[in-house]
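quick one, two chains, predict together pls
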Amino acid sequence: MNTERQLLNGDEAVALAALHAGVLLGTGYPGTPSTEILEAFDQLGGRAQWSPNEKVALEVGIGVAFAGGRALVTMKHVGLNVAADPLFTATYTDVDGGLVVVSADDPGMASSQNEQDNRHYARAAAAPMLEPCDSQEAYDYTLLAFEISERWKIPVILRLTTRVCHSKTLVVARADAARPAEPGFRRDVPARVMIPAYAKPAHLRLRAKLAEIAAWNEAEGPNRRVPGSPELGIVSSGIAAMHAMEAAPEASHMVVGMTYPLPIEAIRRFAAGVASLLVVEEGDPVMLEALRAAGIAAEGKPEMYRFGELTVPRVRRILAGDTTPEPVPPRGKPPELCPGCSHRDVFEVLRDMDCIVAGDIGCYTLGVLPPFSAMDTCVCMGASIGVGLGLRHTLPAEQARRVVSVIGDSTFVHSGITGLAEMVYNPPETGHVVLILDNSTTAMTGQQENPSTGRTLNHEPTGKVDFVALGRAMGIQNVVSLEIVGEGEQLPALLNDLLAKPETALVVLRQPCVLAAPKIRFYDKAALEKMNQACAAMPAE
Amino acid sequence: MAKVTNIVFGGLGGQGVLTASDILADAVARAGFDVKKSELHGMSQRGGSVSSDVRYGPTVLSPMVPVGEADYLVVLEATQVEPNQPVLRPDGILIPPDVIPPDGLKNKKSFNVAMLGALSAFLDIPEATWLDAIHARLAAKLHRLNDEAFALGRKSARARFNLS
């Protein structure tokens, strides 16, 4: 093992720790800023897979853990909403192998539709949560998360944020990382079958586990105190701790590494040694409210600092109680659809036809900006179809007939298929039209594979979901596939025809992403050569 | 706290801003410093503005350079000087893209490494350490081209800023 110091970003550090922890399978769905974890794990020689969505990724991870293997499940913050259903009951179960769920939050929304604070999930799902503040801690806490998960047979959430994921800092790997036990099936029905008769005692067990973990966190958890002036004590976690220590070098600091369950008594002792206590946390006042509920007098930040990322200058303002308007940073050049991107052609048509466009999450969300200005809604993964149907059900007929749902290939697999079932089951009177913009990759997050590309995470050939066959099998009345290059000029007439009909329609518009196309050609060629070699090696009959 | 050196790179997606900041971070780590490097991936890469912060010194806490505290601002695209300017401290040094003479490079793709050469004229990091970091990051067939680009940037900055 390389125990020299290495410069890694937080995602790479988690991947390295997963390798050293003997993780048998990493699963997840791409999402900035979490995507690089599984890619790095694969490159380091680990086994990693993209799942159709975060819910399935976590369910596979639970299965790995039930089989006694260690599983790492990665997603961005909004992905945990999708995976919340399995998470909230997985905490009731006993996992044999360690199960660590990475939630990569995006305060400030560098590349997200909201800035939800997933620390709420730890308390809501009763899952222990660790929060590293740099890559070394991302490495150390990943190893620790597996130890905690196996010791108490409970899933553990590792919460990263954008600046931890995407900052490179020095990491020294541990030579003594523990290796897990061999997998094998152990029947334990009351701990794994959550019918009410078993779930009721399981909930009691879960609360008892949390009480033990809280006691452990009080006594020997990953929480450190940096001595300083007795005038001011600052409690912080994650990247906010780094900003706080830089902005207030003279203060006493307590950096909380395990933020759920909180080491309340250790914080109470820290508070007793300082004249005033300030909580510096990014996002919602989660720690502040917990401290106050425990009767610890603490101050938080003014409401204006709930929004966006914290920085050293912002923490200085919090320390000074400064609530004057902040300087607005100059705007750089905004992102736009790439030159030659096939989404451009589609949005020009939608704009020129004055469609009401229910949009979705991906590069194509940029269709909302000029010169297209051709998107009217964007909420969450897959919402284009349901929202489009709701618009169709409600708008006057002449407006309803202009509604189109637009969704990308990966987003469709993630959360669009159930939307199609809804369209078949509850069709609007005016019908509906769903466009899948199939660019053969998960482009926005950096060209990852998905179940419709026919390639695995590491670009090997595998099974492929066929959108046209799927649409027909589901009972959609009109299913059409068009190659944008060559057949794209048929799109306006086709759309006019479909919008005029009171029928359901699925249109698959195909054109590989201009950035991904050279790589796709390379993967296809490699797969073909491999197949030819396999054929040549077969014995002649 | 001991002095931390703050450097910000600015440019547009596809110019090699992140590669340049990776090489700098590796070079200062090789020189024995603590270092942190921060940037945003994702939406910002679709041809939009890209910037990257590198901080090094005995101990570095926050990975982001506070506004108004950059010692050096290295800008790879003329239009990106203005949006990045506020990060520079009042007596900080701006290294603009025209420090590299037009037509001086054999291959425009090595422009980011030429800008690193320009930056290197200001920093107390051995030249061999810079070259080790460049070679570690780029394919072997690109080493000579980039060594030349680095040397050009270093020489040009020394002339432009009257450095010895």
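Residues 143-160 of chain B form the longest helix (18 residues).
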